[in-house]
Amino acid sequence: MPPRIRGGSCQPQLLLNFLEPLPSSSLSPSAALAIPLHRPTASSSSSSSSSSQCSRAFSTTPAPQASRLRRKFKEWCENNAPLFREPNEGGRTNYVSRILKTSDFNDVTPDQPFPNNPHFRSEKVLSERAREKIWETVMEKGMPLKAVSAQYHVDMRRVAAVVRMKQIEKRWERENKPMALPYARAIVDMLPRANLTIHEKPFESINDIHVHSYTTQQLFVPASESREFTRADAAKAFGDRILPPDAKMRIPELVEMEKEIAGGMDPHTARAGFVKRAAQSEHDFAAKQKARLQAAEARRTRVDTGRFEFRFEKFNAEDVGPTGRSRSAVGWRYGMPLMDRKRGAVKIPTSVE
Amino acid sequence: MKQRRLLRFHGLKRPRVRQTWNKYNLFNLLRLRTPLLQNKTFFQQKWIGKSMTRGYHGEHIKEYQWERMFSRRPLSTVNMDPAYMARNDGSEQATGRGSGRLLKQRGRPGEKGTEDGSTKRTPYMQMVFAPMERRLDISVFRALFASSARQARQFVLHGAVTVNGKKMTYPGYLLNPGDMFQVDVERVMAATGKPKRGSRDQKALPTTATESAEGEEADAEGAVTEAAEGAEEAVDAAAADAAKEKHMAALKDIKQRAQKFMLVKSAHVRAKQKKSLRKLLQDVKTAMASAQKPSDPSSLSEMNEVERELTALVSQLTINSNQAKKDESARRKQEQEGSSSTTTTNSLGLLTDKQRLVLRWMMRGEAENPHDASKPYATPWKPRDWMSPFAFIPRYLEVNQRICAAVYLRHPVARAGLSEVPTPFSPQLSQLAFNWYLRRG
Question: Where is this region: Disordered (chain A) (predicted)?
């Protein structure tokens, strides 16, 4: 909200106008004529910024005073401008926890941007060096993503994202496209950073598994005392389709490696085996993906007319499901309205390829 | 879509914390307390919780739209330790009297993240507005590309945002994990940089009137030379004369240096030096103009003269102690650069080592962040006032600030002791809001 224009010091000008019409309003009235003000001095002192020009010289209505809150706010702004107006010196974070040590009867930690919410912390972001490091290990050394993720303790999806955006950045560099370099430097300076060195704490947990809502309930499953009730049994007890955590691990090769180490294998050898297996699994995945695309392409016939490319695929018009409303069904069907352009239906795309 | 009115958006009387980087908002955030709810009915409590939280989370989104997005099942994750999983198959948790042996519970997988040994709860109730964070406009704001959620929404509507390389004009597009969104670099710089008018006024305040007038003069000059630059570049491209290009590059370089001293070091440069610098700038301009003409024998000698003058001027300047820090960083940078930098510094034979370093540092800084009157924000670019208290990037986003792009990695999740939804409200208040929305879930 913009600060309201206050006419705190306009009153003498008004009086002056009343007594003697002046051609210009540049004359400072309080200096020329020592007229006592009819208002408390608090407002006139706070509104020194608007004293140079009178905004309502013709009006006889007294201007509204700054409220108590507004005065407090102004005072706060003046006191805290050195702290919060500019980013913190030395590339540290600058959250309100600098001045607020307790809120809602709870302690406020330095990495807490919102003093009332102890559960949200400003966590570290990857520094420019760290991103470069990740890009080099993936693109130049050719390490598999899983191995990079395990090495730096960075989530696999994040590794992929870093590489993806770094590729674009490199392309822009080659094309001499203008980048937001001062912005990037300033922002990264304001945030807590991780350089992915050995001495730092692990950046994030890389073995997160999703908590299925079926598994949040309490179950009573009778089992004999002699029975080995493992994680797989527990998953089966929660539901037929619930997977055990071992099957949900993002990097199952890590568990294999740990098993080998627990079995007495040399850690270095185990790690080499892990990298090999990770590379193999990624290779297999890529091959599978490629085969899928090729199969899809084989089903399709492309006819290029120069202006358009027609793509033909085989469809069975009778294959519309038991109710005739199957999602994969094609073509117009009697009694089945097309909903795609109906009023009230959401037309925002749900995905972008 | 018709927007809600913005009257008293950052009011002081009935304060609401908003998704902006405003100083009023900062003041309100500091004053924010969980209200006393003991003497309220449960309905009133829920109402208060809902109205306070909705004032922050997508206040520009209509209530029925949010109600359709709300999910009563917040997402959460558990970190499983592979070393633990390799050594145990889960049956150890049924040993003892049926809930695991009591002697050492160090290795329980779900409680691994706790360092002090106490079990931390998963703050599910802070995840009420997790579906909102999936929206494109709010993600753009969270990636620090816009100064408010409403501005981010405007970016999307005005076609400045692409998702996976395609223009997306729906602010309500729900990002899927793996989607990359990218905002126009200029828009981001304008949104997060200092505004043009305001910063000029603030700079003029502490200095004297003459100095500010000089600054304006230099600006005007800069604009003129920019125009000349544009013309010069066009001619150069046509001519493709290598020697001339070299001259032009040198002249441009000198001009930039002179401008640098005019603008940045104005506090340290004496009036006489400034005067000569201005004259020098004029000379460079005329030299550039003359060099554009096809037949010009005098350009080389003129350039040499100009360069000599500048180096003499620069050597007159003394480096004061407050630039020692700059020196250090410059030296570090030069060490990284290695041999390539020595050739350029050798061309300025008259400077001392320290001065050379400072000059290099400044030149690089200006090349990255130049003064440019044509930009809609104050140049050289600086982050806007009161921004840093709001600067954080949640973990579900991975941002590359250089290209103003970000990847939505996954949906925000809760884990032991932490929730990834940035909400300024206490868990009690969020829980009340959650209960309000459960009503029609």
Answer: 40-66
